Amino acid sequence: MLTAMFLAALVLITVHSQETEETITYTQCTDGYEWDPVRQRCKDIDECEIVPDACKGGMKCVNHYGGYLCLPRTAQIIVNEREEAAAESTSGRNNVIRRTPADPQRAPPNPTHQIQCAAGYEQSDHNVCQDIDECATGTHTCRADQVCVNLRGSFTCQCPPGYQKRGDQCVDIDECTLPPYCHHRCVNTPGSYYCQCNAGFQLASNNHTCVDINECDANNPCAQQCYNILGSFICQCNPGFELSSDRINCEDTDECRTSSYICQYQCVNEPGKFSCVCPEGYQVVGGRTCQALLSPQQTSAVSAMLVLVKSLAGPREHIVDLEMLTVNSLNYRTSSVLRLTIIVGPYAF
């Protein structure tokens, strides 16, 4: 360094002694340089010292000729000391002109830098370390079932949705073991899952919640009456019918078989109902009991009369069998049989 300064001083002294004209000096320097009035030349500005927070993101600032570089903190710069010294003596003198017969105009030399970049970076054409995109160049080590994501100076391997990293492999996430995703049942699949509902329910539009199916509105399965309940339905039958073993269809109830006392005289089963009938000469009263149409009343020892108890509805034919018994004091017994036919027209009699 002392040798370089001595040579520079010697050159200046020599030039000064040979000048025959006044030296014309312009103190305007190019960007990144400033005029040094003491040394009478342009000197480099150290932006790393005067620019606050010149580099972001934890990068280190490295001063450069006419500017500065932002490099990773692990980066190392190897500079040729001889070229560095030579460049410092003339850099930036783009507009400094000394015209003498013995000293032609000279341009500053172009310094050469060899940059050693950290792992994950490479030297660009502009002598800066730039990130290597391992995902784009195919130099990553991610597995075929993983997704490569580039980072500054490195990369990472991520698993597709539905998988998680375990070591260097992607394994399926069993969503069914996590907090309940599904309302009823959860079915795990590779990389995903789906929900199922119990019988009588269906998935809502969010594919997670189960809502009740109204079977009675959708497609009435019952033969007669249908009542919807949560998750199911109930079938009921009209009076006179009962549910069959399939709990859907209805069968006629034979009321006459349920009790022998349902009618006073005779029970007749009909679809969905029953009716009571009475023998000739009697009519049904109250739906189940029988009442005689004619009531015999004795008028003398050898005579009697029939009294019509109730009006007869028509049109109908009524046949009444009458038997009269005669008993004397000698226990002699006789009987008389009479069949009476009563024809009633369209009007009550």
From TrEMBL:
PANTHER family linked to this entry: FIBULIN-5, PA14 DOMAIN-CONTAINING PROTEIN
UniProt keyword Repeat, yes or no: yes
Family of the protein in this entry: Belongs to the fibulin family.
GO-annotated cellular components: extracellular matrix
GO molecular function, one term: calcium ion binding
Origin species: Lepidothrix coronata
Reported function: Binds EGFR, the EGF receptor, inducing EGFR autophosphorylation and the activation of downstream signaling pathways. May play a role in cell adhesion and migration. May function as a negative regulator of chondrocyte differentiation. In the olfactory epithelium, it may regulate glial cell migration, differentiation and the ability of glial cells to support neuronal neurite outgrowth.
Region entry Disordered, spans: 85-113
Xref: InterPro entries: cEGF, EGF, EGF-like_Ca-bd_dom, EGF-like_CS, EGF-type_Asp/Asn_hydroxyl_site, EGF_Ca-bd_CS, Fibulin_C, Growth_fac_rcpt_cys_sf
Disulfide cysteine pairs (residue numbers): C176-C186, C216-C226
SMART domains: EGF, EGF_CA
Pfam families reported in the protein's UniProt record: cEGF, EGF_CA, Fibulin_C, hEGF
Signal peptide (residue range): 1-17
Presence of the UniProt keyword Glycoprotein in the record: yes
Subunit annotation: Interacts with ECM1. Interacts with TIMP3.
Protein location: Secreted, Extracellular space, Extracellular matrix
Protein name: EGF-containing fibulin-like extracellular matrix protein 1
Residue intervals of the EGF-like domain: 131-171, 172-211, 212-251, 252-291
Keywords: Calcium, Disulfide bond, EGF-like domain, Extracellular matrix, Glycoprotein, Growth factor, Repeat, Secreted, Signal
